[in-house]
Design brief:
By secondary structure, the protein is an all-alpha fold. It has one domain. It is built from three helices and no strands.
């Protein structure tokens, strides 16, 4: 698979993760796909750097910039999901308090 194709697939998966709700079952599948794609991309980039072929500096800089962009998007998604988990946990505690109060009536 070409690196450019792989980059596009990673971007697509990240954008899909950003769009769908965290509780959607497809989220788990997308995260697994993302892990596989990122591993494959890392393998391809490592092979490019280890190869004897003289690489275009501009191409490598583009890949570095893309890596940084993908990392930022992934961190944004992780932060959103983490905030949802915290909010869900707080809401669950409130529900438990109300249930306890109701049970003691």
């Amino acid at each position: 698979m070409q690196l450019q194709e792989l980059n596009q697939q990673i971007s697509d998966v990240l954008l899909n993760l950003k769009k769908i709700p965290a509780e959607n079952e497809l989220t788990d599948i997308l995260v697994l796909n993302l892990q596989a794609l990122v591993s494959e991309r890392q393998f391809l980039v490592d092979n490019l750097l280890k190869g004897d072929v003289t690489l275009d500096e501009k191409f490598l800089l583009q890949q570095l910039e893309l890596t940084n962009q993908l990392c930022l998007l992934a961190q944004e998604i992780m932060t959103e999901r983490k905030n949802l988990l915290v909010l869900t946990s707080k809401n669950q505690r409130k529900i438990n308090v109300y249930q306890t109060i109701d049970a003691n009536r």
